[in-house]
Amino acid sequence: MKTIEVDLGDRKYPIYIGEAVLSDQILMDKHITSNQVLIVTNENVAPLYLKRLEESLSNASHEVLILPDGESTKSLDSLNQIITCLMEKKYSRTCILIALGGGVIGDLTGFAAACYQRGVKFIQIPTTLLAQVDSSVGGKTAVNHPLGKNMIGAFYQPCAVLADTNVLSTLPEREFSAGLAEVIKYGLIRDISFYEWLEENIELVIKRENEALTYIIERSCMNKAEVVAQDERESGVRATLNLGHTFGHAIETALSYKDWLHGEAVGCGMLMAADLSMRLRLLEQEQVDRIKALLLRANLPTKIPKGIKLRSNA
Amino acid sequence: MKTIEVDLGDRKYPIYIGEAVLSDQILMDKHITSNQVLIVTNENVAPLYLKRLEESLSNASHEVLILPDGESTKSLDSLNQIITCLMEKKYSRTCILIALGGGVIGDLTGFAAACYQRGVKFIQIPTTLLAQVDSSVGGKTAVNHPLGKNMIGAFYQPCAVLADTNVLSTLPEREFSAGLAEVIKYGLIRDISFYEWLEENIELVIKRENEALTYIIERSCMNKAEVVAQDERESGVRATLNLGHTFGHAIETALSYKDWLHGEAVGCGMLMAADLSMRLRLLEQEQVDRIKALLLRANLPTKIPKGIKLRSNA
Q1: Is the pLDDT of residue B59 over 80?
Q2: Does the reported pTM lie above 0.90?
Q3: Which of residues 128-147 of A touch B (CB under 8 A)?
Q4: Whole-number Å distance between alpha carbons of A12 and A5
Q5: Where is pLDDT greater, at A314 or A223?
Q6: Minimal-distance CA residue of chain A relative to B112
């Protein structure tokens, strides 16, 4: 098991990465300091990993809330559902929420923890690669508004993140690759030696070899943690984490957030950003080709979806 | 005009207190640094003070949202209404919200500012004595849940508070007295010379003489600011601000939050707390009588409402 500290002063917290951290009772006992524990998860994840988590919680009584899968769960209505559950069980300010799931569950549960009685503890147990390397780290929590994504939220840090590499074994291939886009991003924005390691070892990663998985999650979280520690509220350097996201969001918007996964749009968006940089004479063609080659080996799309109409103002 | 700084490091902010600060264009120009300004107010306050505020905003374009008066406005639905308004107008992360009203409008608008795009600026313009001396200072924002008050919220500081003593002229007598309960509270918990000043000058306050009003608001805010600076998130000394609130909440609950104003319940609750202290031999009868006398001169109730059934477990 690897441990990374996210250094945010009095809000610092550890990220535990490795095989079976979800079943690590000592780890749970350390962080579950209350008998009022609410696990929030979804109908896809619950049949796979809920029991495993509940077993490692043996010493604490707890409740479970299972929500529908999908982006539409990230709403004020679901927030209200979580708060109602906490109120009905008379949970106090010392209760703990556990988010067991991908980005939707993590963002929603984190925001509920930020709001309930003006802030209670929460633990992130991300079950997708994207959530493990990106959304579970850094404290961005939110729900969507019908007119825009992530419009209602808070910067609110978890008290621990548990990234279990075992849970990635059940992740569909496309979702796994989508997570890799964010992994490659860390290499591109600030960690060239990691990028070169990825170029050498991407096949081990694709095969989901445990050692390779632990390494990419560790290195990604380390990079993200360093950036977040410098700029928690995104007033400067944290914006570099958005590489590929401007073009990516344009793709997602054009597709009405359907068909492509977020990571796929970000991967393609990074290549588009590289291409733009080349046109501005900031990158060489050779560098752009190198990025494209790695994205292809990670099974990520490198061309915008057919059917998107381009408009020129020229 | 008096200015008090609430010293919260990078979240420090000024409270301006005095006649006509609402019409002070220089003050507005200093704090309104955006052309995206949303004023949130209610149907009672709008006819009285909205125009005055809009005139002093002459340099900034703005929108207005007028909500129903009353505690039921402090809901997730109203939060959603504010967020929808911001989204429809395409307000960005640099927009500013202005809360023009009492505690309900301040708590709701503050929470909306805390959540919108994970936090935008907001200015408090409290229009009740209670809001001026208590709820607008300290960063406690929230909405209610059907099963409990203030259950969904955030600690989130305004960028300025403008307490205009002129607006108190239209405040009904009962509401004015309810605000005085919190003023007396600061004297009791940590400022004996202020308490003695109140004993000498309460009639000037009741007459709403401007100098006396400015002084009690200033001294109350100074006390609250000092406590909040020591303990922003209520993990220790900030709990002293809750003097009278345990008994007060019991009264409010027994009345289903009807009939009595919050300040009235707190005033009576402080006397009950003093009485309990006497029974525990921590206060003398004479001191309890002194508190009762001041509450009576402030036109506050000193006996629990008739009809509340008392139960004894003895």
Answers
A1: no
A2: yes
A3: 140, 142, 145-147
A4: 7
A5: A223
A6: A152
How far apart are alpha carbons B11 and B113 in whole angstroms?
A: 14
Domain covering A169-297 in this structure, CATH number: 1.20.1090.10
The yes-or-no verdict on residue B172 having pLDDT over 60 is yes
- Does the structure show a pLDDT above 70 at A314? no
- Over range A261-270, report the average pLDDT: 96
What's the confidence (pLDDT) of residue B265? 96
Q: Which CATH number fits domain B170-297: 2.40.50.140, 3.40.50.10490, 1.20.1090.10, 3.55.50.30?
A: 1.20.1090.10
Q: Chain B window 221-240: which residues touch A at a Cβ cutoff of 8 Å? A: 233
Among the partner-chain residues A88, A118, A150, the one whose CB lies closest to the CB of B153 is A118
Rounded mean pLDDT of chain B? 95
Distance of alpha carbon B290 from alpha carbon B196, whole angstroms:
10
* Size (chain A), residues: 314
ipTM of the complex: 0.92
Terminal-residue alpha carbon distance, chain A: 55
DSSP annotation string for A77-102: HHHHHHHHHHHHTT--TT-EEEEEES
The answer to whether B166 touches B49, Cβ cutoff 8 Å, is: no
Cα(B78)–Cα(B84) distance, integer angstroms: 10
Residue with tokens 């915008």: A304
Is any Cβ of chain B less than 8 angstroms from the Cβ of A121? no
Q: Is B148 on the interface with A (CB under 8 A)?
A: yes
